[in-house]
Design brief:
292 residues, mainly alpha, ABC transporter involved in vitamin B12 uptake, BtuC, two-stranded antiparallel ribbon, 11 helices, 1% strand
C-alpha cells in the first residue's frame, strides 16, 4: 500500500510539471493555432539562465524570477520576430520553423554553457515527509511544485475569465477579424499569449531541473510528455491541460513503478495514440461552437 501511495504522490508531482508544459502548448495553440515544437528549447534556455544567475549570485530566488521574466520576454520576442512571419500560413511552415528554432536554441545553449549537464538546486528540501515508520517520496519541494503550477493555472483562469485583457485575448484567438473591428490589437494579444506560454514553460523547467539536470537536450522528454498531456486534455482547454498533466503523471508513475522505467516513454506514446484514436480533440473538447 505504501508503494502505491509513493507512486501516486510522485505522479502528482511530475504531473504538475507536465501540466505546466501542457499549458504552454495550449496557450499558444489557442492564440495562433500553432504547435510550438520549440517549447522544450525555450524552457531549457531559461533554466540555464537561472542556473547561471544562481551560481553567480548565490540566490535561488533571484535566478528563479530572472528565469520567469526572461521566459516572458523570450516568448514575446519569438512571436514578434519569427512566428509572425508564418502565422496564418500553411501548417507545415510553422512546424518547420519551430523545429528549426528548437535546434537553434539547443546549439546556442551548447556553445554558451557546453553540452555537459549540470546540477540544478531545488527551491526546498527534496527529502520526503516521514510519517510513522515510512518516509514518503514526497517532500517540501514537491508541495511547492504542485502549488506553483496550481497558482499559475488559477491566475490564467482569472485572467481569461474576469479581466478585460483576458477577454481581448480570447476574442483575438477565436474571432480575430471581429476583434480587429472592435478595436482589439490582435497582434499584441498574440504576442502576449506567446509570452505567457513561455513563462509557464519556464516554470516547468525550473521545477523539473533538479530531476533531469540541465543540458541542451535534457528537456526533450518533458516537452514530449507535456505535449501528450495537452493532447490528452484538449489543445483548446487550459483546464484540460491541468487535468491531462495529472492523469499522465499518475499513469507514467504507475508504469515506472510496476512495469519498469524503460517502458515509460512507450506508455506515453500508447496513451497519446489511444487518445488520438478514441477522442482526437481531447477529453475536455466540446462539439459546440466556441464562444467568447
Amino acid at each position: 500500500m505504501t508503494r502505491f501511495i509513493d507512486l501516486t504522490l510522485n505522479g502528482i508531482s511530475n504531473g504538475a510539471i507536465y501540466a505546466a508544459v501542457a499549458l504552454a502548448f495550449v496557450l499558444i495553440w489557442r492564440a495562433t493555432r500553432i504547435v510550438n515544437f520549440a517549447a522544450g528549447g525555450m524552457l531549457m534556455i531559461t533554466t540555464f539562465v537561472a542556473s547561471s544567475v544562481i551560481s553567480s549570485s548565490g540566490s535561488y530566488w533571484l535566478g528563479f524570477f530572472v528565469a520567469l521574466a526572461m521566459g516572458f520576454v523570450l516568448g514575446g520576442v519569438v512571436e514578434r520576430l519569427i512566428i509572425r512571419r508564418v502565422e496564418g500560413g500553411p501548417p507545415l511552415n510553422s512546424v518547420i520553423v519551430t523545429i528549426g528554432l528548437l535546434i537553434l536554441l539547443q546549439a546556442i545553449a551548447g556553445m554558451i554553457w557546453s553540452a555537459t549537464p549540470r546540477s540544478f538546486p531545488p527551491a526546498f528540501s527534496i527529502r520526503g515527509y516521514h510519517v510513522g515508520s515510512h518516509t514518503y517520496l514526497f517532500g517540501p519541494f514537491d508541495v511547492f511544485t504542485v502549488l506553483a503550477v496550481l497558482g499559475v493555472a488559477a491566475a490564467l483562469f482569472l485572467l481569461f475569465r474576469f479581466t478585460d485583457l483576458g477577454l481581448k485575448m480570447r476574442a483575438a484567438a477565436f474571432e480575430p477579424v471581429v476583434a480587429r473591428l472592435q478595436g482589439v490589437r490582435v497582434g499584441n494579444m498574440f504576442t502576449l499569449g506567446w509570452a505567457l506560454a513561455s513563462l509557464a514553460g519556464s516554470l516547468a523547467g525550473l521545477l523539473i531541473g533538479p530531476q533531469v539536470f540541465v543540458g541542451p537536450n535534457n528537456f526533450d522528454a518533458v516537452a514530449i510528455f507535456g505535449f501528450a498531456a495537452a493532447v490528452l486534455g484538449g489543445l483548446d482547454s487550459p483546464i484540460g491541460a491541468l487535468v491531462g498533466g495529472l492523469i499522465l503523471g499518475l499513469a507514467l508513475s504507475y508504469v515506472s513503478g510496476y512495469a519498469g522505467a524503460s517502458l515509460v516513454t512507450l506508455a506515453a506514446l500508447a496513451i497519446l495514440v489511444a487518445v488520438l484514436m478514441v477522442r482526437p480533440s481531447g477529453i475536455f473538447s466540446s462539439a459546440k461552437a466556441r464562444r467568447i
